[in-house]
């Protein structure tokens, strides 16, 4: 009696795995941006709700707990993708210093999740990223290094993004600066309209939109 033929395992190809990985990261980034907005709204609502209203406070706390759990899962996806990206970059031939300078970016973002997401997005585009947790740290690093563009959040403790922009342009008036914010602000929009080297994006935004703005600013 012939033994039954063993079934072959159909393993996914490397291309499919890479596609799945990119899709998971895109989903995580899209979800995380929206969750950050929801969490901000919930925390703002918490400041105004009557703390004696048990039902209202319980509902807000439930929203915050749920959002935190989902954000924890998306952060895990982003960390894993960042690890894989670093591994891939180590395998590649290191670029010359002049090539690195052509794509060097200073990123100032006080929110750790947004900073991590943006860092991953920029590195995937091939940029060399220097991170700063607030405006003052960004200014200190700006004075010690050469960058082709600065990306800064507007709402930051201490030195705001607008203040950082003004200090940078006193030193180098031609350097492109991209202002980003989760709020609908008129001032940065008007600044971007009036000056060719100032750009504005409202969070959350897609990676392709960020790519377009960076490519335009570095022409």
- Helical content stands at 55-70%
CATH superfamily of the largest domain: Response regulator
CATH fold node name of the largest domain: Rossmann fold
Shape: globular
Average of per-residue pLDDT values: 79
Number of E strands:
5
CATH architecture of the largest domain: 3-Layer(aba) Sandwich
Tell me the strand percentage band: 5-15%
First-to-last CA distance: 73 Å
Which features would summarize this protein structure in a list?
5-stranded parallel beta sheet, alpha/beta, 219 residues, 8 helices, single chain, Rossmann fold
Fold and architecture overview:
The structure is a single chain. The chain is an alpha/beta fold and 219 residues long. The protein has 2 domains: 14-90; 94-217, Response regulator (Rossmann fold), CATH 3.40.50.2300. The protein is built from 8 helices and 5 strands. The protein has helices at 14-48, 54-91, 97-102, 112-124, 135-144, 161-171, 186-194, 207-217, and strands spanning 104-108, 128-132, 149-153, 177-181, 198-202. It has a 5-stranded parallel β-sheet with strand order 2-1-3-4-5, with helices on both faces. Helix 1 packs antiparallel against helix 2. The longest helix has 38 residues, at 54-91. Residues 96-101 have low confidence and may be disordered.
